Each structure stands twice: as C-alpha cells, then as structure tokens.
Amino acid sequence: MKQIRTVFLFTLKDAARKKAFKISTAFMAILVLILCALPRLISSGETDTSSPAQSGTESEYVAPDTEQTALCYYIDADNLIPNGRLALTQAMPDTKFVASDAESLEGLKQKVADNADTSIIVVENGENAPNLTFITKDFRSGISSTTATEALSKAYIETTLQSQGIDGQTVEFARSTLPMQAEYAGPSDFSGYLIGILLTILVFFAIYYYGYGVAMSVATEKTSRVMETLIVCAKPRNILLGKVLAMGVLGLLQFVGVLLFGVICYQLLVPDNFTMMGMELSFAAFTPASAILVVLYFILGYSLYAVLNAVCGATVSKIEDLNSAMMPVMLVAIISFYISYISAIATPGGGLEKAAMYIPLTSPFIMPFKLLNGDVAAADIAISLVLLLAAIAVVCMISIKIYSASVLHYGKRLKIKDALKK
Q1: For 170-196, how does the pLDDT look when each residue is reduced to its tens digit (9 = 90+)?
Q2: Contact criterion met (CB below 8 Å) for 313 and 215
Q3: DSSP bridge pairs for 119
Q4: In angstroms, what is the C-alpha Rg of the chain?
C-alpha cells in the first residue's frame, strides 16, 4: 500500500504541474462560460419583429440604428405587396433595401455576381399569390430567403385583409400565434436530453484524455530510464495501480470542478425562465442519485480503459511509437462511444440500446445519458455495474501480467502476444 501511495503522489503532482492539464482546464472553463453566456446574449439581442403600423408610408419609416452591411434590390413593378420593402427593412435592419425596376434586372445581376453581400428580390404575379424570386451570388451568400419570405408574406396577408375592409384589430389577431408550452409524462425532457449528450461527450473525452495521460506517463518514464529506478522501489503491479489511481483522481477533480463551475455560471448568467425552441431549460432530471451514478460510471469507465492504455505505454521503447501502440484501445473506445450514441439517441428502446447498457465497454458512455433521459430500472443499473466491475477485475489481472513482462523490455516494440508468452 505504501508503494502505491508513493507512485500515486509522484504521478499526481507531476501531471498537475504539466501545461497540458492547466490548458485543458482553462479551455473547458472558458467553453462552459461561453455556453452559459449565450442565453443572456440571445435574450438581450431579441427585438420586436412585429409589422410596422400601416398609418405611415415606406418613406416615413426609419430603420433601427443598425449598421447596414448588405444591399438588396427590391423589384415589385406592379406593387403586389404594398409596404413590402418596409417589412423587409424592419425584419432585416442590417440590410439596405433599394427599390428598382425590371428593366435594370440584368445589370443588377452582374452586381450580385461581383459582390456576395448584394442580393435581388423580384416580386411577380403568381397563379394565386405573388411569386418571390431571390437572386444571390451562391447558396452561401446573400440575404436569408426564409426571413424575407416570412416578412413579405405577413405584409401581403395584412394588406390583403385590410383591402377587404377587415379592421386592424382583426388583422392583428389573424397574425398572432397561439402560446404553447411542452410537458412530459416521463422523466425525459429537452434539458435532460441536452445535458445527457454533453455528459456523454465529456465522459468520452475525459476517458480518452486521461487514458492517454497514463500511457504517456508510463512511456515517458520507461524511455527516460526512470522506470528502472521505480521498479527497484515498487512492484510493477503497484506502479500500474498507483499511476492509474493518480490520473483517475486528477481527472475526477477536473471533471467535478468543471461541473461545479458550470452550475455557478448557470446560476449567474442564464436568465430565469429562459426557453430554447419553446422549452425551458431545467436541471430537474439531474438528481443527486443520478449525479452520483454518473460520477461512478466515469470512474469505472476510466479504470477499464486506463489499465489498457498503461499496458500500451509499457510496450513501447520510444515515445514516437505510443500512438500506434494505443491505436487498438482508442479504436475500441471510439466504436463503443458511437454504438452508445447511436443506440441511445438515434434508435432508443431497441435491443442494441439494451445490450450497450450491459456491455462493459459501452456502458460508461450510454448510462449517463440514460440516467437523465429514461426510467432505468434498478436491476439494469445493478447488472451493468456488476458486469463493469467484473470486466475491470479481469482486465486488471491480465494487464498487470502483461505490464510486468513488458515494462523493462527495450528495443523493438513488444507485441501483446509476446508479452503474454513471457
């Protein structure tokens, strides 16, 4: 136990002092800060997009104090949509709308071909309603046809109803939309879905990053001959366990620290009752029990892959060979992640999802999402954890034997089958 503690403390301090750990922590904190600040920026940037009062004319309307960076020529020779340019200006205040005529169309097309920020809207007679044609340099440039169509449609409907003698109050009522809210009978909601996806991705990258850290630590000490000193003071088994535990604790501290920082940023920056796609953000699915289980799956998933990565680091004699040695383990991790992602999100409720919950290689990736977005039976959780613990025990025993046989091997990279023979 003393040997494990010595290796643990040495590895923990060494990894915490490295620039990679400090940069990754700062990067994740900045990313969390940006994600939490976006809702406030979105809320503060919302403007009133209702149509202007019809008592005025287009020439009387003054666009909001917004820098106009784009230009759009508006051609409506028959005045099919009165106040159409007015509606466009209010819907897209960053675009300057200039009235033009059909005779100038060919010349205007050349201007559009030369400048991606220039567009043309042509309003022509259609079978039952005006037809809109949008001319831009290519599909990636020009104004938003969806926004322009919506603004012109509202203006056309409004003026048409008014021309039929419909009073303004009725016209405004016809343009209104019904208020809505979404409720869910089950435990899954939009917030749980979103947080579940983010957690699944975060767990994968944490397992990948810290597993790579274990392999790099073993390979570095082996190539620098520090391992020869360590092997005298501690058994290979204790060295392996000490390194895995150290990187696991460091990863867990960073993982929990980022989550706590995210909670603080959420409380300070996200506006109350903020909605996205009509649904309010909520952490109702994130209960204390689910939080504990998510952390537990992270620890066990890391442990499973970390011991495999440590063996990969022990089989190389040069740092340059580490990536190729780790490729099989990383490939298994990536495939397991995508199986979990597809089964939980693309095809939920199927046999693949059930299998992914039980298979030790995939359960650390799928279970955090399921815990936040489904009524997972206690029996399923118990079976998943037992199988995962059993897999860790078996992999640890095999990995310790391979590690002991390969840690002092130098020269050509040792293959796993050769290490097993030793």
Answers
A1: 877 877 766 655 555 555 556 667 777
A2: yes
A3: 72
A4: 31
